[in-house]
Please model this.
Amino acid sequence: MFLKKHLPCALLTLLRFLQYHFACYNRFVMRLRIIALCTFLFLTFLLPQAVLSQAPSMTLYVGQGCPHCAAVEKFLAEKGFYDKCSITVKEIYFNRENAKELTQLFEEHNIPLLQRGVPTLLSGGRLYIGEDKIRDYLLNLKVEEENQSCEQPSLLLPALVAGALADSINPCEFAVLILLLTTILAASNAARALRAGLLFSLAIFLSYLSMGLGLYKALTFGTLPQVFTKVIAALAIGFGLLNLKDYFWYGKGGFVMEVPLSWRPRMKRFVTSVTSPLGAFFIGFLVSLFLLPCTSGPYIVVLGMLAQRTQFAEALGYLILYNLIFITPMVLLTLAVYKGLSPERAEEVRQKRLRLLHLIVGVILIGMGVVILGGGV
Model:
């Protein structure tokens, strides 16, 4: 009750505070940051607790003549699940494609051979094998009788967007891109810098997407314990607090949530050695490794959520969306420089509002952690 009563006021106060600081910004940067913050506040906090998304379509794998399968199908019919939920029934004894599909699911979830069989229900990216487990799952599923639909609370997409926004406004990628554009402009012209910035952003996108898919596969190898959700939430809150530390006490504790100081001279040498758009593309893959300490926090949290909730094809779509959001400010900054924004001016603004960027990222991450702990994701 306390949170419901006071959270909107606190968020409004925070929004006004940030808007006050944005007033002295370069107009382009100000609009970009306000849009990012308002989007986060709407998606993560201002959505009502009752916001529901349609539950994932369920697939029931059965075998003709299997008594347990028949019992589950009868249970679904008696309880009205066929009317309230989207359930596809696939027979595997006489349908090779369905049998192959189920075997592939067992392999992806690392289900031991002795535990495989029918009936098996696929719902929300998880497998429920056996009559008892399917019954227990369905009985615990929240069914909204009035709407005659099978629904579950889900803030996975808003949380992913919030994480991507937090990641996209981190100070590290801005610093690297500004340095790159400054180097290209000094040696050439604005059109060449535009191509270099866009190719550099593309390289970052491809690199982070590849790393994300690799980590997703590693996290989905085997069955993750339920406590892993709390670990994800703890990571989000921990990374958020470290960013808040950099807002209030920047550099204290011997570290900042950015590229380590010992790495920066080498990274700068790599970036300033670029003389062509193609070189910017290839250097983007290398620089992405230097950026990991600064940008990995939200990404790891989101990957943990995806590993718990999604199958590979769905996770791929989410990761593409995440990384498109992640590189959007880089693309916008590149376009702004092409249109006449001085890289020196952009770096001046970045340095001036460095702590504020850490504040925004910290608040978003802590908000994500609270949502995860509350069961919204």
Remarks:
- DSSP finds 15 helices and seven strands in the chain.
- The beta strands are 53-54, 58-62, 87-91, 120-123, 126-129, 143-144, 149-152.
- The radius of gyration is 24 Å.
